[in-house]
Design a protein that fits this description.
Elements: H1 2-12, E1 16-23, E2 30-37, E3 81-86, E4 92-98, H2 122-133, H3 138-149, H4 152-155, H5 159-172, H6 178-192, E5 197-202, E6 208-214, H7 216-225, E7 228-231, E8 243-250, E9 256-264, H8 269-282, E10 290-293, H9 297-306, E11 311-314, H10 316-326, H11 334-346, H12 350-364, H13 370-377, H14 399-409, H15 418-445, H16 456-464, H17 467-481, E12 483-491, E13 494-501, E14 504-514, E15 519-522, H18 526-530, H19 535-543, H20 564-571, H21 583-598, H22 602-645, H23 647-656
Parallel strand pairs: 7-10, 10-11
Antiparallel strand pairs: 1-2, 2-3, 3-4, 5-6, 6-9, 7-8, 8-9, 12-13, 13-14, 14-15
Helix pairs in contact: 8-9, 11-12, 17-19, 22-23
Length: 690
């Protein structure tokens, strides 16, 4: 009845609201209902609002009080209404209707602004939520809906309603506490991804202090690319000043890949130990070869305890930034930065590093500088000359982790909640994986361009390496062409060569080569550190007319086939598990296309509207029938409970039950009370931060 009256109001130009409701005595069954014009009644302007006095009123006397909000008067004591009553036939009947209004009716072009004409339906709410999850702002989603509907007057709700709805969606995630909401989301991820892993740590007071999570694809990536890990804890953009610790690696396309993420409350040894042990457990106790971090003593101790066989290296990027803060007067010296950068990155041998560092310290008088002395003691953790025997994927610093922080935090603020941050994190991961799929696609469908003749080692490299890694190999091959070779001695099946760049004698390296097996080793240790051949070995292989890279010098993590097993496993899964376009989206697209085709033909529009009503009626009947069957089953289940717990009580209850009259029967369906547990499982106790 309300829907009919709202349509009547929309045609005339006024808004409707509910008013008095009367029930049958002793029941909650509606007997009589009033619907009135929104201008019904009047406001008492002279009435003063009562204010309760608190104990702190005396303290607040000196404070500035907020001015009362001035609200426009919209009530004119209009008598227009409609009154309906439940009759003997079990239907609602209109028994009273006042048509006349004591105020001007609204113009037709403004009717859509009436409150009774504005509604965000379930379908529109789902569309708004989808657009919000996709990263659209509230105003962008509203503008899109207006454009799609044909104007603001056709959307069915105002911009204020839209903004309020978007705000409620955000508030819904933190109703039960921000930490609890995040935990609920993680439980929900477990339900959809059986390999999803997360752990929560509570402090002595039962408050959440640490959280770690990773999904199944992160574990797959770690099994392939987990030889080098970048662990950075310099990111703090969130409401609670918690430390976000993304654990990152690089894939075969030189792109970021996420292995896991965590929030920790402090930078103590215990927190780092818990995080690293949890990460290690989630990855099947597999330890990385090299772990890059910033300069933190507590983290260093935790790594030595959890990963004793892992090579811990410091981030050169952080060392450079810290050094700039301590340069002082040296900032004005243009040569100092280049000298310091050479010590950090460009020294090929230990002797070269020691000589360069000593010369820098003496020239700029840094012998007694505490920070430079402390950095020198840690030289084995950051100097490339001391780390040639450990695989580091060619990374000289954790700059990839820095880019990770910027990629995750570009939308985050200091007021960002944990649930909002998690959504930003998930959006970033989706973008990374989308880029990875594109890179895999282009690698499988194209061959890298090169100005060099496509033959021999270059041809083989273009067939096995990704497009990104081929550029590194091509650069090394270009250097190899510009080198000179000198054979120093031979011993049976082993030859020793000296290889150096022309006009650069300091670049000389010694290469040992075995012609029978095509095995080679270079004193620069580039292959051991990066996973691809240096130009010294390439020069010797080319010198001996070797046209294919030996298998032992092909690092699978850099090839096009690094993730082949994973892609094959995903292809073999059930199509329902990897359904990229849900049924709802397919049907929405079909219906939308059908509407567009009918828009220019009056007969087609009429046919579509008539069939829509028929289909809608059939669907409503089908859904109602299923709901009734479900309620009957629930009532049968509930009826069995008291007979088991207390048979005598069930018998007495049955005797006292009387049959209701026709007017007392409810015309509404019974609503079942919601349970305390959500769809994510039982609430975790004490899930709150500080």
């Amino acid at each position: 009845m309300l829907e009919i009256y709202e349509k009547h109001a929309a045609l005339l130009g006024f808004s409707v609201r509910k008013h008095t409701t009367r029930y049958f005595p002793g029941t909650k069954n509606v007997m009589e209902k009033y619907f009135v014009c929104c201008a019904q009644g009047k406001r008492n302007i002279n009435r003063k609002k009562k204010v309760k006095k608190d104990r702190n009123d005396k303290e607040d006397e000196g404070k500035k009080k907020r001015k009362p909000r001035k609200v426009s008067i919209t009530r004119t004591d209009c008598k227009a209404c409609i009154r309906v009553k439940y009759n003997e036939e079990g239907l609602f009947e209109v028994i009273h209707h006042v048509i006349a209004h004591n105020h001007d009716l609204t113009r037709t072009q403004w009717n859509y602004l009436h409150r009774s004409q504005r509604e965000i339906t379930k379908e529109k709410g789902q569309a708004i939520e989808s657009m919000q999850k996709s990263g659209l702002s509230a105003m962008d989603s509203y503008s899109y809906m207006c454009e799609e509907a044909g104007g603001e007057e056709c959307v069915g709700h105002s911009v204020r309603d839209h903004l309020n709805y978007c705000t409620r969606l955000k508030m819904k995630t933190i109703e039960g506490g921000d930490a609890q909401s995040l935990i609920d989301i993680l439980y929900h991820q477990v339900a959809s991804d059986p390999e999803f892993f997360f752990r929560v740590r509570l402090d002595k007071d039962g408050r959440v202090c640490n959280i770690f999570w990773r999904d199944s694809m992160m574990m797959e990536d770690y099994n392939i690319y987990g030889d080098v890990v970048v662990f950075d804890t310099t990111y703090r953009t969130n409401r609670y000043n918690l430390i976000c610790a993304p654990i990152v690696g690089i894939n075969n396309h030189w792109k970021n890949v996420m292995f896991g993420c965590a929030f920790i409350g402090d930078e103590k040894i215990e927190s780092f130990v818990w995080l690293l042990e949890t990460f290690k457990k989630s990855m099947g106790n597999k330890a990385p070869i090299t772990l890059f971090t910033d300069q933190d003593i507590a983290m260093s101790k935790a790594i030595s305890k959890v990963f004793p066989d892992t090579r811990h290296r410091l981030c050169i990027w952080h060392l450079e930034q810290n050094a700039i803060l301590r340069f002082g007067k040296l900032k004005s010296d243009l040569t100092f930065k280049d000298t310091f950068s050479k010590c950090l990155k460009k020294c090929e041998t230990i002797d070269e590093f020691e000589d360069s560092w000593k010369a820098m310290v003496e020239k700029y008088k840094l012998e007694y500088h505490k920070w430079f002395k402390r950095v020198y003691k840690l030289k084995e953790k950051w100097c490339p000359a001391y780390n040639k025997d450990f695989f580091s994927a060619g990374i000289l610093s954790s700059q990839r982790s820095e880019s990770t922080n910027h990629a995750i935090g570009f939308k985050a603020k200091k007021s960002t909640s944990l649930t909002e941050f998690y959504n930003i994190f998930q959006t970033t991961i989706k973008r990374w994986r989308r880029n990875e799929k594109e890179d895999e696609f282009y690698c499988s469908k194209s061959v890298p361009y090169t100005a060099l003749p496509r033959s021999g080692l270059i041809k083989h490299a273009s067939e096995i390496y990704t497009l990104s890694l081929f550029r590194d190999f091509e650069e090394e091959f270009g250097y190899a062409i510009a080198t000179k070779v000198h054979k120093t001695w031979t011993d049976g099946n082993t030859d020793l060569y000296e290889v150096w760049l022309e006009d650069e004698p300091l670049s000389m390296q010694q290469v040992t080569y075995m012609p029978s097996t095509n095995k080679a080793s270079c004193s620069c240790k580039n292959f051991e550190a990066s996973g691809w051949l240096c130009y010294h070995i390439i020069r010797i292989l080319h010198y001996h007319s070797v046209t294919r890279i030996p298998d032992e010098y092909i690092c699978k993590r850099w090839t096009k086939f690094a993730k082949t097993d994973v892609w094959n496993r995903l292809d073999s899964q059930n199509l329902r598990e990897i359904q990229f376009t849900p049924w709802r989206q397919n049907m929405a697209r079909k219906c939308y296309n059908l509407v567009l085709r009918c828009e220019g033909n009056e007969g087609a529009r009429k046919l579509l509207e008539e069939n829509y009503k028929t289909i809608l009626k059939l669907i409503e009947d089908l859904v109602e029938e299923e709901n009734n069957n479900g309620e009957d089953n629930c009532e049968n289940d509930v009826a069995d409970i008291p007979s088991v717990l207390d048979p005598q009580r069930a018998i007495t209850k049955g005797r006292n039950k009387r049959k209701k009259g026709p007017l007392e029967k409810s015309h509404k369906k019974k609503k079942t009370k919601p349970t305390k547990d959500t769809e994510f499982g039982a609430k975790t106790p004490n899930a709150r931060f500080f």
